[in-house]
Amino acid sequence: MNSQTLTSLIEGPAGSIELAIDAPFGEPRGVAVIAHPHPLFGGTLDNKVVQTLARAFTQAGWTAVRFNFRGVGASAGQHDEGRGELDDMLSVVQQLAPGGALALAGFSFGAFVTSHAFERLQLHREIDKLVLVGTAASRFTVAPVAQAAHLKTIVIHGEQDDTVPLSSVLDWARPQVLPVTVIPGGGHFFHGQLPLLKSLVLRHLAS
Fold first, then answer.
1. For residues 89 and 96, what is the distance between their CA atoms, to the nearest angstrom?
2. Largest alpha-carbon pair distance within the chain?
3. For residues 9-35, b (16+ Cβ closer than 10 Å) or e, as one string?
4. Exposure string over 117-147, b if 16+ CB within 10 A, otherwise e
5. Residue 107 within any structural domain of the chain
6. Whole-angstrom Cα distance, residue 16 to residue 9?
7. Is 151 a member of any domain?
8. Residue 1 belongs to some domain of the structure
9. Domain containing 44: what range?
10. Helices marked H in the chain — which ranges?
11. For the purposes of burial, counting CB atoms within 10 Å of the CB of 182, is it exposed (0-12), middle (13-18) or buried (19 or more)?
């Protein structure tokens, strides 16, 4: 992402997990772990939306940790339809953010995985922020967000997303009465609107 990005490998449940870590200026507020879109459709930690999320977190004072799911880049293993990918994300959290302030974020398939990581982790630790972008609710069973966590959560979706229809995200959010922030005219990858996406996330992180 920039010349200061630290790349490394950790040992995960399926072998090596590739990481890209960006530190903020000054003392970090905590660690944000960010999950990328679908591995079988070109999703990696270098995805533009994932990088935008990382920039928002570092600007807001967080250490941003992006990682490649199993079978992507230098990460070992094979795609596991979300099950193993959840294990990968939980392993990254356990090793990079075992304590202290924690935020979780994900884009598309990564938002689906992040929803389940949040559901699992919130049982035994505080999670400060949850950011779900382009949530793949039409393709996967996205975990609900507990009512008590709604204020710490932002769900962002493009009005004209033709990969994941906005209606599917609203169908997921409606029973929870969970607000969805809609970017007018936005597509799945927010072409031309990444600065707006970043500003929405920054505003949420500052709230």
1. 10
2. 44
3. eeebebebbbbbbbebeeebbbbbbbb
4. bbbebbeeeebbbbbbbbbbbbebebbebee
5. yes
6. 6
7. yes
8. no
9. 6-206
10. 48-59, 83-96, 109-121, 166-173, 194-206
11. middle
CB 124 within 8 A of CB 102: no
Average pLDDT across each block of 10 residues of the chain; the chain has 207 residues. List them in order.
Answer: 84 98 97 98 98 98 98 98 98 98 98 98 97 98 97 98 98 98 98 98 97
* Per-residue model confidence as pLDDT tens digits over 78-127: 999 999 999 999 999 999 999 999 999 999 999 999 999 999 999 999 99
How far apart are the C-alpha atoms of 91 and 156, rounded to whole Å?
26
User: Can you give the C-alpha Rg of the chain in angstroms?
Assistant: 15
Rounded to whole angstroms, the Cα distance separating 66 from 73 reads 12
The CATH number linked to 28 is 3.40.50.1820
Give yes or no for a contact between 142 and 115, defined as CB atoms under 8 angstroms apart: yes
Please name the residue that has the structure tokens 């992040």: 114
Number of domains in the chain: 1
In a domain, 60, yes or no: yes
Asked if residue 138 lies in contact with residue 168, where contact means CB atoms within 8 angstroms, the answer is yes
